[in-house]
Amino acid sequence: MLATPQFLMISSTNGNSDHSHSRCLSSSSSSSCGSKSVGHRAPLQAGAWLQLAVLQSLLQLAAAAAAAPAMLQDIGKPSKPNSSSSLAGVTRVSSRQARLAKPLSAAAAAAAAPHSSSSSKGSWPYPGFPAPQALRPAVLAALARQPAPLPTAAQVEGPSSSSSSSSSSSSRRRPASKPEVLAPAGGWPQMRAAVENGADAVYFGVTGFNARARAANFVASELPAVMSYLHERGVKGYVALNILVFDEELQQLEELVRQLAAAGVDAAIVQDVGAVALIRAVAPRLAVHGSTQMSITSAEGAEFAAGLGVTRVVVGRELSTAEIERVSAGSGVEVEAFCHGALCRQPGPVAQACRMPYGLIVDGQIQDLADISYLLSPQDLMALQQLPAMIAAGVGCFKIEGRLKGPEYVAATTAAYRAGVDAAWDQLLQQERQQLERIASSSGASSSSSSSSSSRASSAAAGAGQLDPQLLANLAQVFSRGQDDVFDGLTPGFLEGSQHQRLVRGRAPRHRGLCLGRVSAVTSRGVVIQGLLHPVKRGDGLVFDQGTPERDEEGGAVWDMFSSSSSSSSSSSRDSGRGASSSSSRSRGPNSSGSSGSSGSGRGRKVEGEAPTGSTVELVFGPGQVRLNRLAPGDLAWKSRDPALEARLRGSYEAVSSTSARKLAVQVHVSGSLGSPLQLQLTDPDGNTVAADTGAVLLQQAARRPMSEADVAAGVGQLGDNTLTPAHVDASGLQLQQGLFLPASAFKAGMPQQPVLPDMLAAAAADAADSPSSSSRQQQQQQQHAPRLRVLCRTPSQVQAALQLPWLDEIILDFLEAHGLKQAVAAVQSAGRQAVVALPRILKPGESRLLWFYLGLGADALLLRGAGCLQQLLDLGGPGAAIQSIGELEVPGNSSGSNGDSNSVHGATAAAAAAAERVIIPRLEGDFSLNAANVLAADLLLGSGLSRLCPTHDLNAAQLAGLAEGIGSGREGRAAQLEAIVHQHVPIFHTEHCVFCRCVAALTGPRPSLCGEQAVGARCVLRLATWQVLRARQLCLGVAAGSAGTFLSKGNSYLDCGHPCERHELQLRDSTGADHLVLADMGCRNTVFNAAAQSGLYYLPRLAAAGYGAFRVELVDEPPEMVGQLLEGYRSVLEGRLKPAEVWQWLRSNSSGGVSTGSLEVKAERAAASLRPTARRS
Prior knowledge:
- With 1178 residues, this protein is an alpha/beta fold.
- Among the domains are: 180-343 and 379-433, Alpha-Beta Barrel (TIM Barrel); 664-741.
- The chain has 35 helices and 45 strands.
- A 10-stranded mixed beta sheet has the order 35-34-31-30-29-28-44-36-43-45.
- Strand 5 (267-270), helix 10 and strand 6 (287-290) form a beta-alpha-beta unit.
- The longest helix has 35 residues, at 407-441.
- It is globular and about 85 Å long.
């Protein structure tokens, strides 16, 4: 009997068994294939790969545009994959690996990427909810609004020998096959919802090793059942291991990785670079995807991950589509991007600092923001309209956020994006075919140009279509952070660039649903809503919004509905505003709330079925559900639940019959003889054929009972873990008369059977003797027995204060503005000290000029905070390398292809770079944001060329000490290269959204109330900025212009914001009264610093004994007069002249925000079982 084929070798054929053109046939990017040399058969890792291989066309177009007519009829041979190198120790992918991205013909594409559920038997059984296929026309019409650009003739011809690498890297490159739709699963119901609604892949967590502890997750023992369920339906399964792994957890992780590989998991989604190295050593065949927690925002960051063995990267949510394109074009790894869900990305167990209310303090004065409290809470991402552009930009997988969401959410979003990706892909292929036809039919350059212009005009004309309102309503209904009757909670995020006014409204942090409108009157039995924005029916759940979501809000299910007179409600609305009179209006009882406040009996006729959009209706609630005396005209009414929609969505995945399972029927031909591999030839209904064999596993002479045809049929029936179903098995080519046998044990995973972690840890400690050093002085510093104390300064005055200390020999400069930075470097160096310049945490495509600016400062060292910068500097030669001209450093902003999405650099221009003729790369140091949480990660990062490394903030004092001891202490140990931060205001939030750009500085006067004319409604102001909406309402309602309030900025980016961050100091006051400082860096990204200082005074002796070579004190807004005393206090404790308690008392007395041990304190972690679960398991 045949064993599972997850390690079968597969090759393409054209109806025969010729292996001269063997290639990897997976549907992912060629980065997963390119690690095998030409002619080598890539291992099949799971049944889903084989199914996709069958679906994928092996036929591609010829390269020459002159042969375009033949390209539409004839089929070329498949291209050979690129080869790559394998580095010692950990298998790595080549640094600049090219991907195949030739356009398919329409016929080949139709065979290459059918809907994954198109093979399901029977029709769509849920008429109340549209099938994914039914959604495609409406989605396709809307997607035409942003058509993908047509390929140029050069792109159709393919790269020629004369093409420059720069031009090819900047061209748009779509994936070679239809992108995946990747859905979340917090439990079994969500998994079933994702699979049955068309997901190509599902990602889920395993208890203990993922960033969603509150999700139900799965336990390791469930993995075989989970993967069997997925593979039987042709769906891939990715396990999220997207947290930092501590040293004490590495052994447990190794055991889990073995379980993942044994269960046939298709990939692990990983944040920790040490975990990546461990996975590659334990299970080399298990694919690794770089989590968004890796903060990959540039092609260099993607290349760094690729060097570790990562085959796919999840780019940061803060990138625009144009920036995603540059990441894809400039790296050799597959790109995955979020297309729907929350935009917050926070470290650790995903603390929700962004969903908390804050008061705003501007220049020391608290501001009245009216109903704006959630200043860091963005609306969610919804990228249906951006799908064509994202595919053209090279996105190979669209990820839906939401492992904490329910199955109804998963069903709705998966179905929507299944339809959206299918429609966008069909549109893109049609455009490519039309381009080929134009090239073939054009007789000259002028006619070709005219044809191209005509096609683009027709595409633009098609862009007048709108997204299906019902589709959008379903997405908003299942989950959206709606803000008011203008902002529905779903936005394009950063895909269209920075849009600060649109992204954050700040009224509410959680799910709202659909806004029905504002209450125009409160009656004795319910409320009247004039001009419904969405339909409503009996049973729908409503919640009433008075601008205070942190308090208990009134709400209930609609019990009955009656039509209502618009005149009476209009009169009540005008008389009862939400301004000065709102309090008296709210204090009246249910029988005295306006002109429509009678008993209600006999008033209006009963509304049957559904009250339509635009109607005026009185909504009645069941007894005791809603306290009507707490409601008032002007309150927003939200339909937070739609039980009918939820029931239809549940019907799409519950109790699905086995006949509807997603399987592909194939014809199977089996052949082989004694001493040769078992060979399979699979043919799908469209005639596409692939060949597979068992590789080195040969057919043997049976010692007992030989195989029979029944055994063969049964074994083939399990092909691909039941992802394929054999319609017919032909075993005539198998010489069963020879008494053949194939051992099942031969198909087990070819992974190391002995633990690998002890050897890896020993190697990390042994690497100390070979650790690189950028200079002899650095070597001497690392060999000094006494650790040094360094200070990080953020203002010139702090630098001057620090220079007054004669013993301080290194100062780190972390200026958030370029102004004064060069002078500060000169001042430090002229005083005989070493200047270390800190780089921003994020550099996006288009911001590489910043790196040149920092190199031109002539600092003694650069403190790196992102892997992208590290990779780019290593590509330039690393520490000590001389860069002769700016041409050796990519400056995307100067190229014709620059899109201008990225914010301009404050003072760091190309002119500054051009002024330097020759720059030497200084020594490189790694900061906390490189996330070194264990010995393996620290060893890897220090081995990459860093002279010093600061571990992650996630480690407590005991873990910091253990890391130093594990990596090797003593005179030759690498612990001397480690630096611990012992005083800081921890950066608790880092955001692409600029709080300065969005916030209102003062909003006084009465709140505007509705007017009867409703001149400003949701439709006419849907895409206006918030300040425009408020201003329009004030004009409509006759509110005095003087009470409009002044915004710090009305702009959307650095180009038009007016730079308020350069003139104002901003703080956010939390619910405890703590004021957290907000600073904007050169890229306009905001960092929120904890009000309380975190001190490691009590842990200094232990960390020094563990071997740390340096300790850092970080300043934020400390005044200059405090700097000297603060540093002297820590130095005294480090040298044993003062006790920690003595300095601690001084800190408490002189720190306005207080002081604590913070994350350094050793605490027992809260068990996941004690957290409130947010996803159902069954």
